[in-house]
């Protein structure tokens, strides 16, 4: 018995040891979770901060290629701009455009009340149908009269019918021919009347005359609109204003004392007041052959070499009329020139460097300096036109720091 009891004791499961192992496992899991949370918190509080910097775009020029002959100022204008109205007076029931919307040629912009035109069109179509049925009736009667006339003519030749019968059938046939001609004309008139009312109905739909951008919305549903200006203040003369953005150009008033320095096709460098760093290539389209007596100026039209969405109508712009550029071997030998503000230069390890912003991070770039003039310095190597460099930023700016730009 003693031996059996000892054997049973050995086979019994030690539950206290299993409970202790489970407790140790939970403790390890809890410690691991706390370590992960602590590590995440440490990374969050020590993560790289985004630094605000002020940047400027690197401008690339070609000195010796052109020189400025004359400076002037003007405005961006559109050659194709229209305040779209209707051909007929009516009440606006629907306006389908908003400011800033792009529209295509022929796109419906608004609708006027068309109930009167629809009723008149229905009446005209009914009259047209009635005229056509009357014409069919007359055709049938004319065929019968002509058969009767032919029979009477044969009977008269055989001395069976009298001359009076022949004259009567002949007159009846001629009368029906005349009625047929009149009713044919009536059908044509009724058809044209239907076309007129269809046009009247179509005129209640206002469409875009050309593709462009809606710059202003001038009418609302419920208002009256008329193609002619009315005496009161309750009638609109237009639905909206559409501007063809592909027709943008510059109009400049040049003093008549210097107009001899301008000629068609002359290169121009334009600078928008909104983007003073952006130099836009352009050229002279035409010199308007008349002068303003009061201002002593001559209007000059200037075209952009390439349009950009940033160019908007009525923007202020300054233009520099350039001399004709070099050509041939001289133009090929012209070297580029990159000038940046001195404030963008930094010293690192005895080298001149600048910070370039790419994809929201800064990169250090070693540059070779050229001649300096005033607050600017020429870059001989290390930068390209269009690069954005840091003009102002913290002194401890480091490589690969995330930054947000404030553009100059």
What's this entry about, in short?
With 408 residues, this protein is of the alpha+beta class. Helices cover 32% and strands 35% of the residues.
What do you see in this structure?
By secondary structure, the chain is α+β, with helices and mostly antiparallel strands. The protein has five helices and 25 strands. Strands 3-13-16-15-14-17 form a six-stranded antiparallel β-barrel. A hairpin with a 2-residue loop joins β19 (346-348) and β20. α3 (115-157) packs antiparallel against α4. The relative contact order is 0.18. Mean pLDDT is 81; it is low at 326-334.
What distinguishing features does this structure have?
32% helix; single chain; five-stranded mixed β-sheet; six-stranded antiparallel β-barrel; alpha+beta; 5 helices; 408 residues; 25 strands
Task: Present the secondary structure layout.
Elements: H1 2-11, H2 15-46, E1 51-57, E2 59-61, E3 68-78, E4 81-84, E5 90-95, E6 102-103, E7 108-112, H3 115-157, H4 163-202, E8 205-207, E9 212-217, E10 224-225, E11 235-236, E12 240-243, E13 248-255, E14 267-272, E15 280-292, E16 297-304, E17 316-322, H5 328-333, E18 337-341, E19 346-348, E20 351-358, E21 361-366, E22 368-373, E23 376-381, E24 388-392, E25 403-407
Parallel strand pairs: 1-25, 10-11
Antiparallel strand pairs: 1-24, 2-18, 3-13, 3-17, 4-12, 5-7, 5-10, 6-9, 7-8, 9-12, 13-16, 14-15, 14-17, 15-16, 18-23, 19-20, 20-21, 22-23
Helix pairs in contact: 3-4
């Amino acid at each position: 018995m003693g031996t059996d009891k000892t054997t049973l004791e050995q086979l019994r499961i030690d539950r206290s040891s299993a409970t202790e192992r489970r407790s140790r496992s939970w403790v390890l899991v809890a410690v691991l979770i706390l370590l992960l949370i602590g590590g995440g918190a440490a990374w969050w509080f020590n993560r790289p901060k985004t630094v605000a910097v002020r940047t400027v775009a690197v401008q690339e020029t070609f000195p010796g290629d052109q020189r400025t002959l004359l400076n002037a100022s003007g405005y961006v204008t559109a050659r194709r701009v229209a305040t779209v109205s209707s051909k007929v007076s009516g009440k606006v029931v629907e306006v389908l455009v908003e400011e800033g919307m792009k529209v295509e040629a022929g796109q419906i912009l608004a609708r006027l009340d068309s109930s009167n035109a629809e009723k008149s069109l229905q009446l005209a179509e009914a009259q047209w149908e009635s005229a056509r049925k009357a014409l069919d009736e007359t055709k049938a009667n004319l065929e019968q009269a002509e058969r009767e006339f032919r029979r009477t003519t044969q009977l008269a030749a055989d001395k069976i019918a009298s001359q009076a019968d022949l004259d009567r059938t002949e007159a009846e046939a001629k009368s029906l021919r005349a009625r047929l001609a009149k009713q044919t004309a009536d059908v044509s008139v009724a058809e044209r009347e239907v076309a007129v009312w269809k046009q009247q109905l179509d005129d209640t739909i206002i469409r875009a005359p050309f593709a462009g951008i809606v710059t202003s919305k001038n009418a609302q549903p419920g208002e009256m609109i008329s193609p002619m200006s009315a005496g009161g203040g309750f009638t609109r003369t237009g639905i909206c204003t559409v501007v063809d953005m592909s027709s943008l150009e510059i109009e400049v008033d040049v003093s008549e004392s210097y107009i001899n320095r301008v000629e068609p096709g002359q290169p121009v460098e334009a600078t928008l007041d909104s983007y003073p760093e952006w130099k836009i290539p352009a050229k002279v389209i035409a010199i308007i052959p008349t002068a303003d007596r009061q201002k002593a100026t001559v209007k000059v039209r200037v075209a952009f070499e390439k349009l950009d969405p940033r160019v908007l109508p009525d923007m202020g712009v300054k233009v520099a009329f350039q001399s004709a550029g070099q050509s041939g071997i001289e133009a090929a030998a012209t070297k580029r020139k990159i000038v940046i503000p001195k404030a963008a230069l930094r010293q690192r390890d005895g080298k001149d460097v600048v910070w370039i912003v790419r994809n929201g991070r800064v990169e250090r770039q070693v540059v070779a300096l050229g001649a300096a003039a005033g607050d600017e310095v020429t870059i001989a190597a290390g930068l390209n036109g269009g690069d954005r460099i840091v003009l102002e930023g913290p002194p401890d700016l480091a490589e690969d720091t995330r930054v947000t730009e404030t553009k100059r």
